[in-house]
């Protein structure tokens, strides 16, 4: 019974992420989700209490994946440059492999949509952003990057990677690893010590 429950709950979140991605959080209804799963709407409430709770779970899963991968890289890679490069690869690959989850998290996570879960989910986002900024700071202090505001640099790096939800296609001509390498070259060549600002 427990196994069946877990599988159904997993299908619920997969269907919710897909519908939130396709229709938007506000437009997608619980009835839409129930129809996608082939169940009655009332059955959904066996697993969750509200649509906001579905969004919370999607955001927690997304940020959890990013943070777990980042913490593993930070503890296992001592070289600051290699560490930051691997963080970029990790972020891009996770986004490409979980496009629905990332699209919903990045596009639909707002105070209005998240409701009572806003502070919790934003706290997880801020924790991950802090890891990225620390990696940039470490690279700067090691003399790899020039003096810069790591908060702004972090926003710039995450912004260009996260914007991929708008245009990335699994059927595109570039693989996730190739796209990550492009962002690495763009970020490091633009921020490397000794380069002048444009």
Overall description:
- With 198 residues, the chain is mainly alpha-helical.
- The chain folds into 2 domains: 1-48, Orthogonal Bundle (Arc Repressor Mutant, subunit A), CATH 1.10.10.60; 51-191, Tetracycline Repressor, domain 2, CATH 1.10.357.10.
- It is 73% helix and 0% strand.
- It is built from 10 helices and no strands.
- It has helices spanning 2-23, 30-37, 41-44, 51-76, 80-97, 99-108, 111-114, 118-141, 150-162, 176-191.
- Helix 4 (51-76) packs across helix 6.
- The chain is elongated, with a radius of gyration of 19 Å.
- Mean pLDDT is 89; it is low at 1-7.
Briefly say what this structure is.
With 198 residues, this protein is an all-alpha fold. Helix content is 73%, strand content 0%.
Mean pLDDT: 89
CATH architecture of the largest domain: Orthogonal Bundle
Number of strands: 0
How many domains? The number is 2
Rg, Cα atoms, Å:
19 Å
Number of helices: 10
CATH H-level superfamily title of the largest domain = Tetracycline Repressor, domain 2
- CATH C-level class of the largest domain is Mainly Alpha
Major sheet: none
Q: Structural class of the secondary structure composition?
A: mainly alpha
In the predicted model, the low-confidence regions spanning at least 5 consecutive residues are 1-7
N-to-C SSE series?
HHHHHHHHHH
CATH fold description of the largest domain: Tetracycline Repressor, domain 2
Beta-strand level of the residues, as a percent range?
Answer: under 5%
- Apparent shape: elongated
Task: Measure the end-to-end span.
Answer: 62 Å
Helix percent reads over 70%
